[in-house]
Amino acid sequence: MTDASVDLSPGGAAKAAPPEAHQGSERLASSRDYFDLMKPRVMTLVVFTGLAGLVAAPGTMNWISAAIAILCIAVGAGAAGAFNMAYDADIDAVMKRTRKRPVPTGRVPGSEAYAFSGVMALGSVLLMALATNYVAAGLLAFSIFFYCVVYTVWLKRSTPQNIVIGGAAGAFPPMIGWAAATGSVSLEAVILFSIIFLWTPPHSWALALYKSGDYSAAGVPMMPVAKGAKSTRAQILIYTFAYLAASAAPVFIGLGGLVYAVAALGGGALFLTLAVRVFLSRAGDANAAEDELYAVRAGDKAARDLFAYSIAHLAILFAALLVEHGAGAFIALPGLGGA
Amino acid sequence: MSNDDTPRRDEAEWSDPAVDGAPDSVTLSPAEEAARKRRNRMIALGLVGFIALIFLTTVVRLSTNYNSGPGG
Fold first, then answer.
1. Residue A113 · residue A18 · CB < 8 Å
2. A232 to each of A125, A156, B16, B25, B69, how far by Cα in Å?
């Protein structure tokens, strides 16, 4: 699909034939190309939140098993990313932000990306089961399945709610980390899950607001493309309230101490300010050219700022948990108990 | 049980690459061969790493179970 039309009919954008650019061209794929298939930037946040979940969980864990569990979470996320890149090669080739990825450029054939993904997924789940427990391995397997099948194959091309529901896949890592350490899923793990789950819509839609032309050209029914920029800005604000409520929850159940409270409330206030700024802006309304990831039209600066800060805020929240539970800096707030 | 409509093996048409002119092998350029060798080395490293992790996991689990004693 190369024109600017968007297929919003039931079933959404049709899956185009995979690119065959590798045929007739030299096969010079390097290990770096295969590493890029695993979406290393996404993997970084996944590893970080997974580690925070593991460290914040009660009890002790052998550090070698813990390191292997984190490696499994990283490789599992990479496997899901590789599947996504293979399946979405047709739309990645259209979008400026993604057209240089290994599959659309033909450096890695789609069939090899699928095989790479399958081997990595299987290896990570098996190793997780051996190193920790079946609950963590099962959650890891389900999160890979959810990202590959539910989000990539089903939701992404068919509904503007794609990243709302699909965001669950990215929310699993702290829950998996928690399960790796304890062998079970508790209220704390569910709250950590809900923080990332509710963070995903404002984060993704902020990007979609200033990259709507890209998504429109590719036929992906992201919220600004399907419902318009104004509706998206309002929904960003609504989800921001829900996200801030979820991010404050660890303080009230004793999972987060003073450091976390400052990060959640102070950082949350700035998050809300930026979300209100997006709501009041005309982000996504203009129709000018788009270039690099952080290069935006003047009217879209508010959305770009929220997108960038949202990543920082999530990282700060989980860093606070790491500092409190991993470095012994937990200071319980009066009347709110302690972990 | 026989079926007269089914062609016998010697009557069926078989595709012969040599006859059809299709190449029966792929010739790689020196750059492609070097890239393939690099990829193969990475696959070998990955396999060795995976085996090492399985071994390490087994040792850790055995020692943990041993240290926890017969009562668990």
1. no
2. 37, 17, 60, 54, 59
Interface of chain A against chain B, CB under 8 Å? 26-31, 34, 62, 64-65, 68, 71, 123, 127, 130-131
What are the tokens at A210? 């200033």
B6-18 pLDDT, tens digit per residue, is 555 444 455 555 5
Which ipTM score applies to this complex? 0.77
Q: What pLDDT digit, counting tens, does each position of A38-88 carry?
A: 999 999 999 999 999 999 999 888 999 999 999 999 999 999 999 999 999
CB contact under 8 A, B54 and A130: yes
Q: Does B64 touch chain A (CB under 8 A)?
A: yes
Instruction: Report CB contact under 8 Å: A62, B54.
Output: no
Q: CA-nearest residue of chain A to B56? A: A64
Choose among A70, A54, A60: nearest CA to B64: A60
Q: What angle do CA A238, A240, A243 make, to 5 degrees?
A: 115
Looking at residue A57, what DSSP letter applies? Answer: S
All residues at 6 or more sequence positions from A96 whose CB lies less than 8 Å from its CB, including other chains:
A214, A290, A291
Q: What is the pLDDT of residue A8?
A: 46
Between CA A53 and CA A231 the distance in angstroms is 34
Q: Locate the chain B residue with the closest alpha carbon to A131.
A: B57
B29 touches chain A (CB under 8 A): yes
CA distance A309 to A303: 10
Q: Which of A22, A130, A132, A133 to mutate to test the interface with B (most CBs of B within 10 A)?
A: A130
- Tokens 């070698």 correspond to what residue? A64
Instruction: Report the residue count for chain A.
Output: 339
Is residue A197 within 8 A of residue A171, CB to CB? The reply is yes
Which helix (H) or strand (E) is A176 found in, with range? helix A162-182
Q: Determine whether the interchain pair A68/B56 forms a contact, defined as Cβ–Cβ distance below 8 Å.
A: yes
Please tell me which residue of chain B has the smallest CA distance to A129.
Answer: B57
| B50 vs A: CB within 8 A | yes
CA dist A171 and A248 (Å) reads 17
Those residues whose C-beta lies under 8 Å from the C-beta of residue A41, and which sit 6 or more positions away, are none
C-alpha torsion angle, residues A197, A202, A206, A212 (rounded to 10): 70
Are B29 and A30 an interchain contact pair (Cβ–Cβ within 8 Å)?
A: no
- From CA A227, how far away is CA A230, in angstroms rounded? 8
Predicted model pTM: 0.84
